[in-house]
Specification:
Layout: E1 6-12, H1 19-32, E2 36-42, H2 45-54, E3 62-67, H3 69-80, E4 89-94, H4 100-105, H5 111-119, E5 129-131, E6 134-136, H6 144-154
Parallel strand pairs: 1-2, 1-3, 3-4
Antiparallel strand pairs: 5-6
Helix pairs in contact: 1-5
């Protein structure tokens, strides 16, 4: 039998409605069959910062971000600020607005396939770009590009 994994799912409630929330719940239900799952919900940046500030390294083996590219990027930056947390394994449940990471990495959006990835022992480090005090895992934009992203987040 495989080792029981302790998952901490950080759920960005601003990105999940309807079928997206259903996807998160289905993934959590499947994971709970053989593993421990805690779901922490956020509604804004303050909630999310509080979660990252108050979690202990022993409370989870793998963090799963249920949100979009911005949620994943936020989590990476928060984890890298804490030396005890920066080596934790991160997974995603792609339920954001655009999910460019999901498209680029050809990740599945079916609950069973997501769970297979999340419990897999095949993990890999990724290279990050650092600009000023922030890390980026996928892309960074300036000018018109950043204006478009900013306007999408307001809607």
């Amino acid at each position: 039998m495989k080792k029981k994994i302790k998952f901490l799912i950080v759920l960005n409630l601003n990105t999940v409605i309807g079928s997206k929330l259903s996807l998160v719940n289905k993934v959590a239900k499947i994971l709970r069959q053989n593993h421990e799952v805690i779901i922490l919900k956020t509604q804004d940046t303050k909630d999310a910062k509080d979660i990252f500030k108050n979690i202990s390294v022993e409370s989870f083996d793998r963090m799963v971000i249920a949100g979009g590219d911005g949620s994943v990027n936020f989590a990476i930056n928060e984890l890298l600020q804490d030396d005890k947390l920066k080596d934790k394994i991160i997974g995603i449940i792609p339920v954001g607005t655009a999910n460019i990471l999901q498209i680029e990495s050809k990740n599945e959006s079916q609950p069973e396939k997501i769970c297979n990835v999340l419990v897999s022992s095949k993990t890999r480090r990724i290279s990050l770009l650092k600009m000023n005090d922030s890390y980026f895992f996928l892309m960074a934009g300036v000018g018109f590009d950043s204006d478009i992203v900013y306007s999408v987040n307001k809607i």
